[in-house]
C-alpha cells in the first residue's frame, strides 16, 4: 500500500504518507514519535505494543496500515490528560511495575476491558492479561492492581 492515510491518534487528526505497508507500531513510533508503545516481538505474541483502535485493544506490531483510514487510536500518551490514569496508579500501588516495558500495553488492555465491561470478573481480567508477557513482576501484583483499578473506574 502506498499513498496517504488519515486517522485520529489521541484525539488529534493525523495524515501519514505511506511508501509501503507499514504496521501501526512503526507509524506510531517512527512517523508520529509516540514511543510509549513498545516493540517487543513483531509477531503479536508479547502484548507490549497494545494500543486501542476503535475501542478495541489490538497489537500494533501486526496491525496493518491498510486498516487505518478513519480509525480512532488511543496510545498510552493519550490515556490521561491530567497526569497518571487510575489504572496506572493502581498498578503502581500494587507493586505491579518493575522494568515497565510491558506496562503501557497492559494498561491499555485493561482500559479497553473496563471501558467495554465495567463489571468484568477476575477471570475476564486474567483472560485479557493472557495476551501479555511480563518477565519481571509476575501476575499476582498485576491482577491485584487491575482489581483496584476496576473499582476506581466505576
Number of domains: 2
Determine the fraction of residues in helical runs and give it as a percent range.
25-40%
Q: What is the C-level CATH assignment of the largest domain?
A: Alpha Beta
Q: Sketch the topology as an H/E string, one letter per element.
A: EEHEEEHHHHH
Low-confidence stretches: none
Shape: globular
Largest sheet, described in full?
A: 5 strands, mixed
Question: What is the rounded distance between the termini?
Answer: 42 Å
Tell me the CATH superfamily of the largest domain: Beta-grasp domain
Mean pLDDT: 93
CATH-level-2 architecture of the largest domain: Roll
Task: Evaluate the radius of gyration.
Answer: 15 Å
The share of residues in extended strands comes to: 15-25%
What does this protein look like?
This protein is α+β, with helices and mostly antiparallel strands and 154 residues long. It folds into two domains: 3-78, Roll (Ubiquitin-like (UB roll)), CATH 3.10.20.30; 86-153, Orthogonal Bundle (DNA polymerase, domain 1), CATH 1.10.150.120. The chain has six helices and five strands; from the N terminus they run ββαβββααααα. Helix 4 (103-116) crosses helix 5 (122-129). The longest helix is centred in the last third of the chain and has 15 residues, at 139-153. The radius of gyration is 15 Å and the shape is globular. The chain starts with a strand and ends with a helix. The model has no long low-confidence stretch (mean pLDDT 93).
Amino acid at each position: 500500500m502506498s499513498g496517504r492515510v488519515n486517522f485520529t491518534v489521541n484525539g488529534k487528526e493525523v495524515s501519514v504518507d505511506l511508501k509501503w505497508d507499514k504496521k501501526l507500531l512503526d507509524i506510531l513510533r517512527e512517523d508520529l514519535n509516540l514511543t510509549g508503545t513498545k516493540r517487543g516481538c513483531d509477531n503479536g505474541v508479547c502484548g507490549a505494543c497494545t494500543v486501542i483502535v476503535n475501542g478495541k485493544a489490538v497489537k500494533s506490531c501486526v496491525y496493518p496500515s491498510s486498516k487505518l483510514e478513519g480509525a480512532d487510536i488511543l496510545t498510552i500518551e493519550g490515556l490521561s490528560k491530567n497526569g497518571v490514569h487510575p489504572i496506572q496508579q493502581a498498578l503502581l500501588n500494587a507493586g505491579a511495575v518493575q522494568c515497565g516495558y510491558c506496562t503501557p500495553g497492559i494498561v491499555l488492555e485493561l482500559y479497553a476491558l473496563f471501558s467495554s465491561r465495567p463489571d468484568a470478573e477476575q477471570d475476564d481480567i486474567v483472560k485479557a492479561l493472557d495476551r501479555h508477557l511480563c518477565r519481571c513482576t509476575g501476575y499476582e501484583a498485576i491482577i491485584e492492581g487491575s482489581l483496584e483499578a476496576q473499582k476506581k473506574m466505576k
